[in-house]
Structure formats: structure tokens, C-alpha cells
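Morning, I've got a small favour to ask if you have a moment. I've dropped the whole record in just underneath, so have a look.
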Amino acid sequence: MSWVDEIKTLESKITLVLDHPASVKQQVKEITLVQKQLRVIKREINAQIQLINQNTAQSRPDSIVSVGLDLFGKRRMAGTVRSITRQAMQREKQEARQPYLDLKNYVDQFILEGDRLKLAAQNYLNSINS
């Protein structure tokens, strides 16, 4: 199952119905479990982002063209070629990371939604006990 499918499945489980205290306590436990699962997915996404970062860091920005230009005394042109190559690599890195960053933000939103629901449940339970 892909991360998106897992997140959609977990998203449907983050609900809160304020009916009676025992049910609300059980729902809070379920929300906490879903949040733990979302955090595991988030760690996997972060690992994928780190892998992309490492692969980009290991690739060399010096092209054969820039080395050749350096050898023939065209240092300014060689620097320009290296700069353009570096910028292209940065763009590729950002494009490769962006879907994962979006997914990570999506997961963060659901974790926060779970916190909001747990807070609402706590307020409900406090009002019942008062």
C-alpha cells in the first residue's frame, strides 16, 4: 500500500463523536494510535528525502566541458558552466523532493487535527466531570 493510500485510510479514522465519556475515551485512544502510525509514515518520508539529499550531494558538479575549459585557460567560462550545472542539480533535487515535502505537510496537518480533536475531547470530559 502506498503512503497516500495509508494516509487516506488513517484520515478516515480520525473522528470524534462526543456522545458519552467511555466512548470519548476510547476514541481518544484510537486517535492517539492513528497519530503514532502517521508519525511512522512521516519518518519513512523523511528517510526518502534524506536519500534524495545524499544522492544529490554525491554527484559531481564538474562536467568534462568545464574541466576542459579550465585546462585551456577559459576559467571564467568554466565557472559559468559549473554554476549552471550546480543550479540544474539544485532544481532537480527540489523537484525530486517536492512531492515528499507536500506529503509530509499533509501528514502534519492530520497529526495536528488529531491533537485538536483530543483537546476537544478533553474539554468535553472536563465539562462532564465538573
Summary: The helical segments are 3-13, 21-58, 64-71, 75-129. The radius of gyration is 24 Å.
